[in-house]
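Two proteins were folded this term; both appear here.
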Amino acid sequence: MMNNEHNKTIGIITPMKTFLSIGSGPGIGLATAERFAREDYRVVLTSRNQDYLSERVKALEAAGHAAFGRHVDASDIASVVKLVHEVESEFGSIDVLHFNAAALHDGTITQQSIEGFVQDLSTNIGAAFAAVKEVSRGMLSRQDGTLLLTGGVFGTSPHADYVSLSVGKAGLRNLALGLFKPFKDQRVHIATVTVAAQVAADSQQAKEIADMFWALHAQPPDLWDAEAVYNGAMSRQPETGPGGG
């Protein structure tokens, strides 16, 4: 923020960076978008609910932020790919991706249908893979960018009553951990926050998790982490180094 003000003073125009949120729900998704908006990012919110989307965009605009809304269904992989291409075409590049979509269904292996399981995985890991694959193309070409994924405790401690969510969160975590080193070698940071707490809409917990995502993004390359863990307190807060966070 101070650097932007200094640049304005001496006549340097700093291009506004773009933050794309896939799964901009009223909890972690919106809180994280607001956190980056406060750092002068242009934020693109997404949702299947057009009325909710319009309301949230207007609220951010009223607070003085640059905000845009795009309709997307994360269970439709083609619509996720189309979204990425449209945002890149309109704004030039995506500097930060936050994947926060999830099919939050309970169900044991006897309760959940095969079709329902596959559909849940299309959202929980298929859409994440598609978003990371498409957004990372530009980032790797520029050798600059951050990919942030909302993980969950079921990814490390699976629950038999939440089979599809457990498998999805494990896949999401492994996507981040598996790509961390090769992406880091090309100056692209992929990271996940593993959330081990129930998070309500517009809550302090959501804001704390948003701060963790910002702290991961703000880390200098030599301190990059692949994962931070949130368990209801600001535990394992990422190191940002001097001037970070």
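Next, the second protein.
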Amino acid sequence: MFFFFFLFALLADQLSKALVVYRFGVLSGNPSFLSFLGDYISRFREFPWRTGADGYRQGIELIDGFLALHLTTNTGAAFSIFANNPGKLAIVSAVLITLLYLLFRKWGRGSILWPIAFGLQIGGAFGNFIDRARLGEVVDFIATRVPTLADGRIMWIDFPIFNIADSCAVVGTFAIGILFISRDLRQGSKARKAEFELALFEKESSRFAETVHSIEHSEYDAKLLRRDAAPKPVALYPNERDDAGGIPAELADELALPMENEAESSYMDE
């Protein structure tokens, strides 16, 4: 999935640039697009398709007052910063592309959106890298106007001209940012859920231990009550014996039940 969107962004960028240069930059003859494409991709450190006194002002309006195609080039980075340093910018681009790919290899798993986002971002960055390394400047052609608020009213101003590689890189960057934020939120939610479950487990464990302790104390108290309630054996004094030294019959009947209860209590205590 990553390589599909990487190639999609790269090919869309390079072919769209070639088409715009073919449409606006060819000044003589009427070559076919395929023959022009061979000439275009064979150029190295030169860009001869220049028109107008100040460069690339030929274009067509797609949406009147909002969107147009205008051929131009940029020797710097976005918004023409670091202009006239294509070699250094090409090296920086190569390093950034490598770092982005390593970042994808480490973090771009778990969702189909990760390879899509990284594929668009790296494919767009690679498209502009090819222009800097091969031509020494980046071909731009998408011109648009954006609204802004000035003096209490809405005004439309020209946005810096860009290309499809820029669009893919920006979309991929925003998508990656959203995915990282979403991942952090999910991990934070999981951590909070785990903390809640741990606290609940500790609470239930403490409640269970208290219940077991209460049951043990209840059983012990019940044993003490049974032992205290058991009848005590009756002692016979000498004057309570009969003439033969034995136990009178009426006392023997009274002593039989207490002795039996005491034996039962002793058995239960064991």
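Residues 257-270 have pLDDT under 50 and may be disordered. Residues 164-229 form the longest helix (66 residues). These notes refer to the second protein only.
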